[in-house]
Amino acid sequence: MTHRRVRTLLSDPDLTLRLSWYEPGETMAAHAHGHGQVSVLMAGGFREISDARTADIATAHIGYKAAGLDHANHYAETGALILSLNFETGRQVPRKAWNWRHADADEVALTRQIVGAALMPGELRNAAADLIAAAATCASPSGPPPGWALRLRDQLRANECIDLDRAADGFGIHRGHLSRGFRKWFGVPPSLYGLRCRMSHAVRELARGETAAQAAVTAGFSDQSHMIRVLKRETGLTPQRLTRMLAA
Fold first, then answer.
1. Separation between Cα atoms, residue 147 and residue 164, nearest integer Å
2. CA–CA dist 69, 50 (Å, integer)
3. 190-207 and 239-247 are packed helices; what angle lies between their axes, rounded to 10 degrees?
């Protein structure tokens, strides 16, 4: 069951943009949409299951789902902040019916513009069209990640303070191999992945009504200013604007 909070940014007959917050631990039973959907996970994480396939999604991922595709969602302990772009399928013909990958720098920048900036409706549509086109080219590494990469990912998600040099020694691999391999499988260096996990914990606390100072402490940031800089860089939002949007 889910009790998401939704802010509609644009609503046209053929295109709807929404910012949604899903509480930690919530679930959505198997369902399908009558439209194509591109989603960008801005903070938090979740598991999506479709056609016996499973994707574990972390912050700064972009994905596509074709209209009519059955899928179920299970949201992580941090919850999830998601920008969704719902569109008539005639606007875009994707190469794959369902896929997720790490969002690149340009896609993150487009998402920040849509959510954080005061764009005119025409500009919103242009940015949305670019994201939809980008999601249609999703590609991921083949085969499962190695065990050490999964363990490191889980440790970072748990908000643990990790010395990556020691982690590499513990896994019996070279430090450079750790960075290259982690980036290959999860699309981002482990240091940035850990920073985004801390940001996700901070977003969860802000959504619960905590102050920015308390959210920074709980999420493990060195101070409030550091947390605010990371949040603004990754999402285009300040704590105050994020809180207002989720409360609207």
1. 16
2. 8
3. 50
φ, ψ dihedrals at 9, nearest 5°: -95, -30
> Please, are residues 88 and 127 in contact by the beta-carbon 8 Å criterion?
no
Cα-atom radius of gyration of the chain, to the nearest Å?
Answer: 18
- Residue 104's contacts (CB-CB under 8 Å, 6 or more residues apart) are 134
Q: Which helix (H) or strand (E) holds 39?
A: strand 36-50
Looking at the DSSP bridge assignments, the partners of residue 144 are none
Q: Could you tell me which residues are beta bridge partners of residue 141?
A: none
> Residue 74: beta bridge partners?
27, 47
The token duo for 61 is 């991922």
What is residue 56's three-state secondary structure? Answer: strand
SS3 23: coil
> Comparing 73-77, 82-86, 97-101, 231-235, which segment has the lowest mean pLDDT?
97-101
* 97-124: average pLDDT: 82
Q: Residue 64 in 3-state DSSP?
A: strand
Closest CA to 96 of 74, 61, 69, 57: 69
Contacts of 225 (CB under 8 A, 6+ apart): none
